[in-house]
């Protein structure tokens, strides 16, 4: 099945929810420079469209088996493609910067194999929901590669330093159940239920106050490296800003009427 280049990463918007989808199922959603550039483009487009929530998923049996190793080998061994090789490596990092900058809540829907950079770039998704057939593996050290997407910072932050070292150094696969047990994914569901659970979660998110959601995402991402006093000051400003919104008054009015 031949898929046009512009269709290997899809984007659609429905109300406040955007959906970005890897669409190379015949190639197990392998990632090349073209794919990375399209992901960056689609996440930027989603941000410009002010999507409050983004569902990030993939067509086919696997979310992604990560970098296309044949493609990567060609880049590294062909001197004429050295510039493209540098662009390929840097584009992984640009993708993470793009996802960090997105003001909306990003939910990754994982299934099948999720390998190497294919998993690492989901670490800055705000939620990860995994189908029960999900298998995660970070095999970089075994093939002489290194990690990307700020994973050497993000993975220890999410699951702790000891667990992060175990996954990165040993490179063994872990199941959806093990990923949930150590806090690497937020929820597990049946493969057949994944799209429904993703949509249900996204709809629950966009029903909440949009300004408060934006503050929550940015503060959790940024406040870990600040002093307590700095965090208290930032939270005070956010409380004032959300407290001034008409949306808050409307929500409180509904709550008060229910309590009467």
Question: What does this 3D model show about the protein?
Answer:
There is one protein chain. This protein is 50% helix and 15% strand. It has a six-stranded mixed sheet with strand order 1-2-3-4-6-9, sandwiched between helices. The longest helix has 20 residues, at 82-101. It has helices spanning 33-48, 69-77, 82-101, 117-120, 151-159, 161-170, 176-181, 194-206, 210-223, 228-243, 246-259; strands spanning 9-14, 17-22, 53-58, 105-110, 113-115, 127-131, 135-137, 174-175, 187-189. By secondary structure, it is of the alpha/beta class. Helix 1 (33-48) runs parallel beside helix 3 (82-101), helix 5 packs across helix 6 and helix 9 (210-223) packs antiparallel against helix 10.
Question: Which value, in Å, is the CA radius of gyration?
Answer: 20 Å
Question: Can you give the mean pLDDT?
Answer: 92
Structural class: alpha/beta
Helix content: 40-55%
Strand content: 15-25%
Task: Assign the CATH architecture of the largest domain.
Answer: Alpha-Beta Complex
Number of helices: 11
Helix-strand string: EEHEHHEEHEEHHEHEHHHH
Distance between the termini: 61 Å
Question: What's the layout of helices and strands?
Answer:
Layout: E1 9-14, E2 17-22, H1 33-48, E3 53-58, H2 69-77, H3 82-101, E4 105-110, E5 113-115, H4 117-120, E6 127-131, E7 135-137, H5 151-159, H6 161-170, E8 174-175, H7 176-181, E9 187-189, H8 194-206, H9 210-223, H10 228-243, H11 246-259
Helix pairs in contact: 1-3, 5-6, 9-10
Report a brief summary of the structure:
With 260 residues, the protein is an alpha/beta fold. Helix content is 50%, strand content 15%. The chain is built from eleven helices and nine strands.
């Amino acid at each position: 099945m031949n898929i046009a280049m512009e269709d290997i990463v899809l984007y659609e918007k429905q109300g406040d929810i955007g959906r970005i989808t890897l669409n190379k199922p015949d190639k197990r959603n392998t990632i090349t420079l073209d794919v990375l550039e399209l992901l960056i483009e689609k996440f930027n487009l989603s941000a410009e469209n002010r999507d409050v929530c983004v569902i990030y998923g993939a067509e086919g049996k696997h979310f992604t088996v990560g970098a296309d190793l044949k493609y990567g080998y060609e880049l590294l061994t062909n001197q004429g493609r050295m510039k493209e090789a540098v662009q390929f490596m840097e584009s992984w990092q640009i993708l993470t910067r793009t996802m960090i900058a997105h003001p909306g809540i990003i939910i990754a829907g994982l299934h099948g194999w999720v390998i190497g950079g294919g998993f690492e770039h989901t670490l800055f998704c705000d939620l990860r929901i995994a189908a029960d057939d999900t298998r995660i593996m970070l095999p970089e050290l075994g093939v002489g590669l290194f990690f990307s997407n700020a994973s050497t910072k993000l993975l220890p932050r999410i699951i702790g330093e000891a667990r992060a070292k175990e996954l990165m150094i040993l490179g063994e696969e872990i199941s959806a159940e093990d990923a949930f047990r150590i806090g690497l994914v937020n929820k597990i569901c049946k493969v057949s239920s994944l799209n429904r659970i993703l949509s249900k979660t996204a709809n629950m998110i966009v029903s909440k106050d949009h300004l408060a959601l934006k503050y929550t995402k940015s503060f959790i991402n940024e406040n870990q490296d600040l002093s307590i006093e700095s965090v208290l000051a930032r939270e005070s400003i956010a409380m004032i800003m959300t407290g001034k919104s008409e949306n808050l008054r409307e929500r409180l009015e509904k709550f008060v009427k229910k309590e009467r």
